[in-house]
């Protein structure tokens, strides 16, 4: 796989007029020429290869949208070097736009008063998509996203879930190689979120489109993105597989053993008992190396075991632990 996005020490700072409190302060603010500097993105480096699906995660104000805007050429970095498909995005914004698709969850790219279909047609003309290719893509995306019933409706009449599907379809009509999504599931209900996630996974795995998405929703990462980039305060905190993060944090798996009848106290060296409900006993497996087979071997056959369930630590717990342990994990 070739590298298609390379960020090398990318930095973005915004200058904002200094604000003062109170009425006198407001007036002073109007005439003052003082500025404060916001460090939105600080010295971020990463490489993304063709075909990857990467989740860009971080709390409010961490610098996620700013980074996406720089990769799409909307914003110009203050420092560092950024290359997308071999180009500097803001310098070749129009050429770049033909090869990328962009979806902003909070801002529509569709024409509000026009039928969805007309927005698509305008998009075809702007991007100069060959007629036959356009028809083929439209038919395929309409089927995949179940949009048949509302292609003729005005965008303002659509539900948020329907609009989101139309946004994603439009972003893909010109066969982009990279799809950037900023909070694609924000405000959607569970069913609509599920549809968006399934679609994006398919687009990535079957059409080979590279996906970069920002989100607050950890489930998005879990289902779509094997790789996770975490930022806070503009700085990069973690870049790697979600699996690696779990391992690095020593995230614990939960084990539940159900017995036919209460076997009395059960103690194991491979797992720590955390709650005993008689016939149901809950353990934590703290060592990554320990497998279920090890636990069962230690347990032996004599307890009348009826059922076993093993739960991987959920992503919310992993991220929470990450932020708690942050000073120890991140070289300052
Ligand atoms: N145009 C701008 N002018 C001044 N400051 C800005 C501008 N855009 C973003 N910022 C500031 O840069 C920082 C990063 O903002 P950004 O929108 O990238 O964060 P985010 O991680 O996307 O946040 P959220 O999850 O809330 O959308 C914030 O402190 C924000 O206030």
UniProtKB/TrEMBL annotation:
GO MF terms held by the record: ATP binding; ATP hydrolysis activity
Entry-linked Gene3D superfamilies: P-loop containing nucleotide triphosphate hydrolases (3.40.50.300)
InterPro entries according to UniProt: AAA+_ATPase, ABC_transporter-like_ATP-bd, ABC_transporter-like_CS, ABC_transporter_ATP-binding, P-loop_NTPase
Pfam families: ABC_tran (PF00005)
Alphabetical UniProt keywords: ATP-binding, Nucleotide-binding, Transport
Domain ABC transporter as annotated: residue spans: 18-258
Family as reported in the entry's similarity comment: Belongs to the ABC transporter superfamily.
Annotated protein name in UniProt: ABC transporter ATP-binding protein
Organism (species): Devosia geojensis
């Amino acid at each position: 796989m070739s590298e298609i996005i390379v960020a090398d020490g990318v930095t973005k700072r915004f200058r904002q007029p200094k604000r003062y409190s109170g009425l006198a302060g407001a007036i002073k603010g109007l005439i003052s020429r003082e500025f404060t500097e916001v460090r939105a993105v600080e010295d971020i480096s990463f490489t993304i290869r063709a075909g990857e699906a990467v989740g860009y995660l971080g709390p409010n104000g961490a610098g996620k949208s700013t980074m996406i805007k720089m990769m799409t050429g909307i914003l110009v970095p203050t420092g560092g070097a950024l290359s997308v498909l071999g180009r500097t995005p803001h310098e070749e914004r129009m050429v770049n736009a033909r090869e990328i698709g962009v979806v902003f969850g909070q801002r529509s790219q569709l024409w509000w008063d026009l039928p969805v279909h007309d927005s698509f047609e305008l998009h075809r003309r702007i991007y100069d998509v060959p007629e036959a290719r356009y028809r083929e893509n439209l038919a395929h995306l309409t089927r995949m996203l179940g949009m048949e019933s509302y292609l003729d409706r005005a965008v303002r009449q659509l539900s948020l879930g329907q609009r989101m599907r139309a946004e994603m379809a439009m972003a893909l009509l010109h066969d982009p190689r990279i799809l950037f999504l900023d909070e694609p599931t924000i405000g959607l209900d569970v069913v609509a979120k599920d549809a968006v996630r399934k679609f994006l996974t398919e687009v990535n795995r079957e059409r080979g489109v590279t996906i970069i998405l920002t989100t607050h929703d950890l489930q998005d990462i879990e289902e779509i993105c094997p790789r996770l980039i975490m930022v806070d305060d503009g700085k990069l905190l973690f870049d790697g597989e979600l699996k690696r993060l779990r391992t690095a944090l020593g995230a614990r798996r939960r084990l539940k053993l159900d017995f036919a009848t209460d076997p009395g106290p059960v103690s194991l060296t491979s797992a720590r008992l955390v709650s005993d409900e008689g016939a149901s006993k809950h353990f934590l497996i703290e060592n990554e190396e320990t497998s279920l087979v090890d636990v069962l071997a230690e347990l032996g056959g004599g307890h009348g075991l009826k059922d076993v369930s093993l739960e991987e630590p959920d992503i919310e717990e992993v991220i929470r632990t990450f932020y708690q342990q942050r000073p120890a994990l991140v070289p300052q």
